[in-house]
Automatic annotation (TrEMBL):
Sequence segments annotated as region (Disordered): 418-478
Name of protein: Family with sequence similarity 160 member B1
Origin species: Cyprinus carpio (Common carp)
PANTHER family: FHF COMPLEX SUBUNIT HOOK INTERACTING PROTEIN 2A, RAI16 PROTEIN-RELATED
Signal peptide start-end: none
Length: 683
């Protein structure tokens, strides 16, 4: 009977739109009055066709009327609470598959009709109810339709931010939990993703009250962090750090994956991708969120995930556990891009202290203390991984990292004596008889190729290295840059050098890298309130005892043992120190790159540490037979120019000498590049 009526209707003349609309709606209600078989799927009925016809009529009506004017068909839908009735039918899923049809109808209605519908109580109330209905069963047959519906609602809120107020009623607090979480909660394993900006971007939540309601009156923060913790707990207790570092980029579950293939790749691959995908979702959500909401969400991640879940893992004593958790933390640091979440991550790792560091206060923040100590761990793997973690931290656009780790210890310049250094005999040697490997910086070929557009436009922050002069020092004690460069180049004695015997390993190879890296650092640091010149001595508290800080202490200690440490450890130590040397801060530059500063008694600088290493080296080289040919052979093997053959004695020391020579060349290049940057724009 139902299908017969529909067939006869198709043969009838066209009716006015309202009559046509009412006919299709009554045809649907008529089905529920007459049918006795409520188990037949909805696709065996004409309900989907009638719903589609109703949508077409509403769309046509809006197209034919003045903009913003409500037509009789839409009035009929609102007055007769058709959406409310459809919600009831969808909730009952009668006939089977009706829920899917209702979700699709709501989605198309909200998406196709241009006039604002959500302000109508007979629209936003059933929409709220349908939102609640979503996600009751995860991975349900209607999951795709539920996600499309939620995306459409979010898009409407983004289009008109003030519509959010219709979802902020106290009795409907769970609406937000469902909108934001119920379905995006499966995003790491679902075939359909959802943009985080669709709900919490600045436009959808312009009012502080709305952002406050979202973060304080819903379970959004708890739901996000609980899921993050859940994914983390699912990870294996032990994982190869290389697998953690190199696993493919996260994609919010948009890939097609094979569990067997993942298991063959490495145990826990799918769990790791799920964790990193959810972390990335949280990060992007916070990045796009209104500022107040972003701060609350980021703080929740810190308290409910980092402190509650990760900190015990990082503080454990099991070397396997430490290595795995540090590798995961390293990956997290690399991945976080939102300012709010990065800040909370840094506060979790380092604390919020910015005042001067003291030897007795280094344990004030236990996790910071433990991580820095791990840079000098008995396990070389843990040392390397933790040093790499700090290297990645130093490259993050967060001023607090550098202030907390290094700069607060150098603020008063009390590493120097308050007097000008006297002329020294070695300086006369540097001026009147330069060693054979000294370089003429003004004729360096690298910078003859640099156009003004490619040069760094730094201001006069590098005032501790003035333009070249015929004198060794300026009246204020500042040293010429070419003497600084040659001081580093000449630190390693000739008999301990091997790079000049291998093509393509000269000092100039470091210049381009230093130029690029310094330009990148200047771009990151330019918005920070950093000193453009050293703090005047008369304003410094030079009487306070100098403490280099826990971080620099461990780095200097490891640098002092460069001749007795594994090659990979030395590479990582020098990499961190070179990153610090590149930073455009006057005090840090002075402390790390000026060999001629007059150190206060008991203080050390990077240059003085290297001088002590060279002194030790000169004593030890004479005890090794055929030192120079062995050194050259080790260098060629490291470069892959010689095959591995018979073992060489003292290989750790020989590798340390090679790293030392290369590091001195790198520091020389950095010093020159920073000086050139400060003078290239001088009048």
């Amino acid at each position: 009977m139902f299908s017969k009526i529909y067939w006869l209707y198709n043969l009838a003349p066209s009716l006015p739109l309202q009559e046509d609309f009412v006919y299709h709606w009554k045809a649907i209600t008529h089905y529920y009055i007459e049918t006795s078989d409520d188990k037949a799927p909805v696709t065996d009925t004409n309900i989907p066709s009638h719903l589609e016809q109703m949508l077409n009529i509403l769309t046509q009506e809006e197209r034919e009327r003045e903009s913003g004017e409500t037509g009789p068909c839409m009035e009929y839908l609102l007055h007769h609470k058709i959406l409310e009735t459809l919600y009831t039918l969808g909730k009952a899923d009668c006939p089977p598959g009706m829920k899917q049809q209702v979700l699709s109808f709501y989605t198309k209605l909200l998406g196709r009709i241009r006039q604002p519908l959500l302000p109508h109580i007979n629209v936003h109330r059933p929409v709220q109810k349908l939102v609640r209905l979503c996600g009751e069963v995860l991975a349900a047959p209607t999951e795709n339709e539920e996600i499309q519906f939620l995306c459409t609602v979010c898009a409407k809120l983004k289009q008109d931010p003030y519509l959010v107020n219709f979802f902020l009623e106290v009795s409907d607090r769970d609406i937000w939990d469902l909108l934001v979480y119920r379905h995006i909660g499966t995003v790491a394993i679902s075939p359909i993703g959802m943009s985080p900006c669709s709900l919490t971007q600045d436009r959808p939540l312009p009012e502080p009250a709305a952002a406050k309601c979202l973060t304080e009156n819903t379970e959004l923060s708890q739901l996000l962090t609980d899921r993050l913790a859940q994914f983390y707990r699912a990870l294996p207790q032990s994982m190869d750090p290389l697998d953690i570092e190199t696993v493919e980029s996260v994609n919010w579950g948009l890939d097609v994956y094979n569990l067997k293939e993942d298991a063959v790749a490495f145990a826990g691959k799918r769990a790791l991708i799920s964790f990193l995908s959810w972390l990335d979702y949280c990060d992007q959500l916070i990045k796009e969120a209104q500022k107040t909401a972003a701060a609350v969400l980021a703080r929740a991640v810190r308290e409910r995930f980092f402190v509650a879940i990760m900190e015990p893992q990082l503080m454990q004593t099991s070397e396997v556990g430490i290595l795995t958790s540090t590798a995961l933390l390293n990956r997290i640091i690399r991945q976080v891009t939102s300012e709010a979440l990065l800040q909370e991550t840094v506060y979790f790792l380092l604390g919020e202290e910015t005042g001067p560091e003291t030897p007795v206060g280094i344990t004030q923040h236990p996790l910071r203390h433990r991580l820095i100590e791990h840079c000098d761990h008995l396990s070389d793997e843990i040392s390397i991984m933790t040093l790499r973690l700090f290297e990645h931290l130093l490259q993050k656009p967060c001023q607090h990292i550098l202030q907390n780790l290094v700069l607060r210890c150098l603020e008063e310049r009390n590493y120097m004596e308050n007097k000008q250094p006297e002329e020294r005999e070695e300086r006369e040697h540097m001026e009147n008889g330069q060693p054979h490997d000294a370089v003429d910086l003004e004729e360096d070929p690298l910078f003859s190729d640099l156009s003004p557009d490619n040069r760094l436009s730094s201001p006069d922050w590098l005032s501790c290295s003035p333009p070249p002069s015929t004198e060794h020092t300026k009246p204020d004690g500042k040293t010429e840059v070419h003497k600084i460069v040659n001081s580093f180049l000449c630190l390693v004695p000739d008999e301990a050098k091997s790079s000049y015997q291998v093509e393509g390993t000269g000092y100039d190879t470091y210049l381009r890298d230093a130029h690029r890296q310094f330009r990148d650092y200047c771009g990151v640091c330019q918005r920070w309130d950093w000193r453009s010149s050293p703090k005047p001595f008369e304003k410094c508290n030079l009487d306070s005892p100098f403490f280099e800080g826990h971080f620099l202490k461990v780095l200097f200690d490891r640098m002092g043992r460069i001749l007795d440490q594994p090659y990979d450890v030395n590479l990582q130590v020098t990499s961190v120190l070179s990153k610090l040397s590149l930073l455009p801060h006057a005090h840090l530059h002075e402390y790390l790159l000026d060999p001629y500063i007059n150190l206060a008694p008991g203080c050390r600088s990077l240059f003085s540490v290297i001088v002590r290493v060279v002194g030790d080296l000169m004593l030890r080289t004479h005890r090794i037979p055929d030192f120079t040919p062995k050194l050259l052979l080790v260098r060629k093997r490291l470069l892959g120019l010689e095959p591995e053959g018979m073992s060489i004695d003292h290989v750790t020391l020989l590798e340390g000498v090679i790293v030392l020579e290369e590091f001195c060349k790198e520091l020389a290049a950095i010093a020159f590049v920073k000086f050139h940057a400060s003078t290239s724009t001088s009048p």
